[in-house]
Write a structure and sequence with these properties.
The protein is of the alpha/beta class and 373 residues long. The chain is built from 11 helices and 20 strands. Bound molecules: pyridoxal-5'-phosphate. Pyridoxal-5'-phosphate binds next to helix 9 and strand 9.
């Protein structure tokens, strides 16, 4: 997809906000505990390479991604820090990962067996770094029983192509005020890890929510994601221990303004009909940019005033009701502050009945990312 540089619509990423959020967490961590910044999905839409750079400056010592290509993007950009791929990779890519010093998440011993065969053939200069994932209740990937885990650990101990670098789990409800399920997962984690005779280099369980609200579990590394971007992982359910600064704003400009009279309709399906004479502005952004069609009826800011989105959000444009005529080129704020008003990703997510994670990741590459500070 091309980047729309000839259109006045852009995501603005505040580097200082990213830095402050990440540094605030690094400062809170117990001594010996490292922060790996989670930059999967293009840094939650903020730009993986740019976020990784700021995170490094703010004290992050490694990175987590979801897929191998995201790790390779960081290596190509010159990052030499440890990188852990959180998803299951293909065993045939084990030699590439070993060569690039990219750590693999392993969820089953048959993966180790398959990877070992490829590694034995390719003979990379370094072993593949392996983090064993434990499924303590997330129900996604990982070893579930002490027998499965013991088998994997013995396999690692007897195969020089592989190095047991880490062990981890992921909590399903760390962002919830109800800690019942969280505590069950902690208990399962403790039972499983009790079979380890030696601890690997990295032992980690914490996403943002766990690190913010259950720091006692942190062990020696945290996988810090959404809170680094200034977004509260619980939505509004639990206050963060420090002020999170949202790093992302979204701005555009009016490209057209016109008057409609009572009875005239706006947009596909003619779902909005003016009841009186009104000014209608057109903003060049739509669902092809990740601005959800469900946002019909939501609002943007023009000249510090709240303006409703009227009619259906189109693929590339949307229409808003203006208090009066405005010149073409007038600034429109879709996320962020204008005067006394702020529109947050959280409000947008509430309106769309989803979570801010989904909206942040959903902004497509057609939107230029512009970095400030
Ligand atoms: C295994 C794992 N760890 C850490 C994270 C980061 O989570 P958060 O963005 O809530 O901090 C994720 C994100 O989905 C994940 O899948």
């Amino acid at each position: 997809m091309v980047v729309g540089v000839h259109r006045p619509t852009q995501l603005v990423i505040d580097r200082q906000a990213l830095h402050d959020n990440i540094q605030a967490e690094v400062t809170r961590l117990a001594s010996g505990c490292e922060l790996f910044m989670v930059v999967k999905a293009n840094g939650y839409g903020h730009g993986a390479v740019q976020v990784a750079q700021v995170a490094k400056e703010a004290g992050a010592t490694g990175f987590c991604v979801a897929i191998l290509d995201e790790a390779l993007e960081l290596r190509a950009a010159g990052f030499n820090e440890p990188i852990l791929v959180l998803g299951v990779t293909e065993p045939e890519d084990a030699p590439l990962m070993a060569q690039q010093h990219i750590s693999a998440t392993v969820a089953a011993t048959d993966w180790l067996v398959a990877a070992d065969a490829y590694l034995a053939l390719a003979q990379p200069t370094a072993p593949l770094q392996v983090h064993l994932g434990l499924d303590t209740g997330m129900g996604r990937i990982g070893f579930k029983t002490t027998t499965e885990l013991t088998t994997a650990v013995s396999y690692l101990a007897t195969h020089a192509t592989l190095n047991f670098e880490g062990i981890f789990t992921h909590f399903a409800t760390a962002d919830s005020p109800d800690e019942t399920y969280f505590k069950q997962q902690v208990a399962k984690w403790q039972t499983l890890t009790a079979v380890l005779k030696e601890r690997p280099r990295y032992v980690h369980v914490s996403n943002s929510a766990t690190s913010l609200w259950h720091a006692a579990c942190n062990d020696n590394m945290v996988r810090f994601g959404v809170a680094g971007y200034g977004l509260n992982p619980s939505g509004t359910a639990i206050p963060a221990p420090y002020a999170l600064k949202p790093a992302l704003s979204l701005t555009s400009q009016l490209v057209h303004s016109k008057q409609v009279v009572a009875g005239e309709s706006v947009g596909y399906g003619a779902t909005y009909t003016a009841q009186q004479t009104e000014w209608v502005g057109t903003v060049p952004i739509g669902y092809a940019d990740g601005y959800e069609r469900r946002l019909q009826g939501f609002h943007v800011l023009v000249d510090g005033q709240v303006c409703e989105i009227i009619g259906r959000v189109c693929m590339d444009q949307l229409m808003i009701r203006l208090p009066h005529d405005y010149a073409r080129g007038t600034r429109v704020t879709l996320i962020g502050r204008d005067g006394d008003h702020v529109i947050t990703l959280q409000e947008m997510a509430d309106y769309c009945q989803t979570i801010h994670y989904e909206l942040a990741c959903g902004f497509t590459s057609r939107l230029p990312r512009v970095y400030r500070h």
